[in-house]
Amino acid sequence: MDKLNLQLLLDKLNTAIVTPAMKIYKTMPPEAIPIILAAAGAVALLAALIAYLIIRPSSKKQGNEISGKESLISTFKDNGIILDIALPDAHENVLARAVITEIKEDRVNLEIVDDMGLSGQPEYGRILVMFPPEKITTGTVNSFKVTIANLQCKKDGCGRLSTTLPQSFSTVIRRRHKRKKVIDQQFIRVKIWLGKPDTDDASFADTIPDLAVNSYDPRSGGHEDNEVINISNGGLAVSTPLILSENKFDTNTSVLINIFMFNFRQKIFKPYWYAGKIRTVENIDRTSCRLGVGFTMSGTIRDENEQFIDWIKI
Description:
Blueprint: H1 6-27, H2 33-55, H3 59-79, E1 83-86, E2 96-103, E3 108-115, E4 126-136, E5 139-154, E6 157-163, E7 180-181, E8 188-194, E9 211-213, E10 227-232, E11 235-241, H4 242-245, E12 254-263, E13 268-283, E14 288-301, E15 309-313
Antiparallel strand pairs: 1-2, 1-4, 2-3, 3-6, 4-5, 5-6, 7-10, 8-9, 8-12, 10-11, 11-14, 12-13, 13-14, 14-15
């Protein structure tokens, strides 16, 4: 049902009640004024009640909004989505990563899987919780703000977190670089090794990669099941079967990366060297997962024999 027009209703009240009442008021003796005032008060009260009924939020709409919020955070819980936690005014500085373990009427309980500074934050403070973009009725969102209700920490970091329920969802811009989706896998080849750029020795490139995509290296079994999802100046995302990544990659793991990308102008594959960290490890389904890799340094081959790499921070 459409909402009533408030102004139209007030005009009708004025025509039907107020104007006739004023005419009667002018003809009434002074001792009848209290009666007129009481009647006017009753009319004002009736108008206020009608206005409230018109403009109050629909209970059905409120129920839908609450249901939508509960549905979204329930999806995070059921799928084990890893959530990034930061301060509201510093979303680029992730303090922890956590998963939702329980949803109650007045709070959400989370298990912290990676503490990167949350233990230094005061209890009962406001935090920003970020997640992969989700579409809701009002648009695409990727975050919500809540208040810490309880934070359980030990010397080696925090383990559990309880927060208030989110009241609304919002969007924060997290990507500094535009990502390009990789449609044709034949134009990109990737090798990833566990390791840090703590030396200029390029000998690691001769060892078996810990993860390979389209590398055609016979030593790296299973690489034909891996795919590059997208790539940018800041990193890349790779999908891989769980059996190839379990117990090998974790968030904040240091890696060395070699990318052979086809240059359409020169009609050749060109090599690119990077050092980076595993930013996210997310299960796509029961058999595969998505690894998000962020570049921290770029490398340049120094000599013709390709034995040494010069590293530069990005």
